[in-house]
Amino acid sequence: MRRINAGTLQINLGKLCNQACHHCHVDAGPKRKEQMDEKTAHRLIELLEASPETHTVDITGGAPELNANFRYLVTEARKLGKKVIERCNLSILFEPGQETLAQFLAKQQVEITASLPCYSQENVDKQRGKGIFDKSIRGLQMLNKLGYGQKRSGLDLHLVYNPGGAFLPPDQAQLELAYKKKLLEDFGIVFNNLFTITNLPISRFRKSLERNNQLQDYMQLLEENYNAATLESLMCKFQISVGWQGHLYDCDFNQMLELPAEVAGKHQPTIWDIESLGELNLKNIALENHCYGCTAGAGSSCAGTLA
Fold first, then answer.
1. DSSP states along the chain
2. 250 touches 236 (CB < 8 A)
3. Preceding peptide of 61 cis, ω within 30°
4. Domain for residue 304, yes or no?
5. Residue 242 contacts by C-beta under 8 Å, 6 or more apart in sequence?
6. In-domain check, residue 226
7. Is 86:112 a contact under the CB 8 Å cutoff?
8. Is 16 inside any structural domain?
9. Which of 125, 155, 178, 231 has the most CB atoms around its CB within 10 Å?
10. Residue 130, domain extent
């Protein structure tokens, strides 16, 4: 399988996070020290300037907002006319030093994809930590007041659901209706779309499967539900992922497994080995068994189901 085009540049700013979620494939948390430096951030903007075919910048972490270069990357990417997506855990809006974060995101017209694995307090706090549900609800209400999720505001707000255990996500469209109904009735919250994402058997989630003797069964579940109809829309065919040190990968999951992207003559290619992101088009994509997670059932990507 080959990349069609590097239309999206996904940037992982590091593993530092104010949360330590049970399903986290990045293995992020408050004690992690890995952080992208200023030199790497500046090189990314140089590459974006040299890559007109790359229209979207997708910024993730950890909690990407905790990186000192986060606002620089957002501002400079927007100056270049790129669409910017930010992966937000919502509770970050209430961390010290982040008092102006929501206003900054709205001013820059950043599209927010926010984690909310359930609309019930019990399930969210169990998966993400005590008190996270209340902060998430307050964060969504704050974003709504700024225009996020409101019709014709131009400020898109999407939510992400991921399963709380070793099973596939339910039907995305039906779950979205349930989310919208419950969040509006209980909290007056509106949003644009719900994305359901399959938990991939890597990092912290894989360790959980191993502890519970579920890894073999979960892998069998993914393989038995393989859906060839997802192949045309796999996100790795339309993006490139960059790690906090500047290494190049086909997706964020491959990044966590240190499976490098293909660059001629380079064993571990970095952003200093290329002059534009277009050089990565039509390159082979690294595949392993965890890729069944993106091709199982209706498929999975950073923008939800595929088929």
1. -B-----EEEEE-BSB-S---TT-SS--BTT---B--HHHHHHHHHHHHT-TT--EEEEESSSGGGSTTHHHHHHHHHHTT-EEEEEE-SGGGGSTT-TTHHHHHHHTT-EEEEE-S-SSHHHHHHHH-TTHHHHHHHHHHHHHHTTTTSTTSS--EEEEE--SSSS----HHHHHHHHHHHHHHHH----SEEEE-PPPSSHHHHHHHHHTT-HHHHHHHHHHTB-GGGGGG-GGGSEEEE-TTSBEESSHHHHHTT-BPPBTTBSS-BTTS-S-GGGGTTPBPP--GGGHHHHBTT--BTTB---
2. yes
3. no
4. no
5. 9, 10, 11, 12, 44, 248, 249, 271
6. no
7. yes
8. yes
9. 155
10. 8-203+234-286
Q: Which whole number is the average pLDDT over 190-207? A: 94
What residues form DSSP beta bridges with 112?
86, 157
> pLDDT digit string (tens) for 88-139?
999 999 999 999 999 999 999 999 999 887 777 777 667 666 778 899 999 9
| Residue 169: alpha-carbon gap to chain centroid | 16
Cβ atoms of 91 and 19 within 8 Å: the answer is: yes
Residue 42 CA to residue 290 CA, distance in Å, equals 32
Classify residue 216: in a domain, yes or no: no
- Cα dihedral 162→165→168→169 (10° resolution): -30
What band does 25 get if pLDDT is binned at 50, 70 and 90? confident
Report the CATH number that the domain containing residue 128 is assigned in CATH: 3.20.20.70
Express each pLDDT in 63-87 by its tens digit: 999 999 999 999 999 999 999 999 9
Q: Is it the case that residue 230 has pLDDT exceeding 90?
A: yes
Q: Tally the domains of the chain.
A: 1
Q: How far is CA 272 from CA 246, 252, 258, 269, in A?
A: 8, 19, 18, 8
Spatial contact of 298 and 306, defined as CB atoms under 8 Å apart: yes
Pairing of strands 239-242, 248-249: antiparallel
